[in-house]
Amino acid sequence: MTFLLDLTLPTPAENLALDEALLDEAEAAPEPIETLRLWEPAAPMVVVGRSSKVANEVCVEACRRLAVPVLRRTSGGAAVVTGPGCLMYALVLSLQRRPSLRMVEHAHRVVLDRIAAALAPLAPRVCRRGTSDLALGDDKFSGNSIRMKQTHLLYHGTLLYDFPLRLIDECLAMPPRQPEYRKGRGHRAFVTNLAVPKESLRRALVAAWTATQPRCDWPRDLTAQLVALRYTSADWNGL
Known about the structure:
Blueprint: E1 2-6, H1 12-28, E2 34-39, E3 45-48, H2 54-57, H3 60-66, E4 70-72, E5 80-82, E6 86-94, H4 104-119, E7 126-129, E8 133-136, E9 139-148, E10 152-160, H5 166-171, H6 187-190, H7 198-208, E11 213-214, H8 220-231, H9 234-237
Parallel strand pairs: 1-2, 1-11, 3-4
Antiparallel strand pairs: 2-6, 3-5, 6-10, 7-8, 8-9, 9-10
Helix pairs in contact: 1-8, 4-7
């Protein structure tokens, strides 16, 4: 059974912390816990990968001018811009139930192929591209990343559906690593919206993971601890 948590918290720090808290909660549980969380930021934000160098990937001065916060997530990958018009999802999956997911490349294939199949009735050209992207042909609308622990993994990402794409140009530098299919294109030429209503995207993700059991609780205390320890820390965020 995969639980469904449809929850957006008030601040960027709380929302990133909750993804990590769901993973840590599952790691500490005596039995496997699998959860699909859906959320959408109330305002634009930049999220960099765990090992990203902010100065290399983010237009910091532009973000300050636009009042766009920059935070670091617990998973890898390059910087993304998210906000209203971008549905976020987080999957906590059991490595005991799904041992093949311990191989990172296989985990990317399994998760993204399942999501692509769920989206295909809404947008037939959806496909997995590069290491961890979903695209419409050669145009990316979803970036994703992974954090692996002992008994569970966190797989989370973005689904752009009505996002102001100019913000990506304004807030992000060209990434230091690019998939071959990008062909050196700038952000505006490479990234697109998947023009599908948010509720349709939500239903597709819920169906893909048969997340039919709503969660009535979530790790509030652990989320608050992680906010204080990491996500409001300039040292952690690299600013």
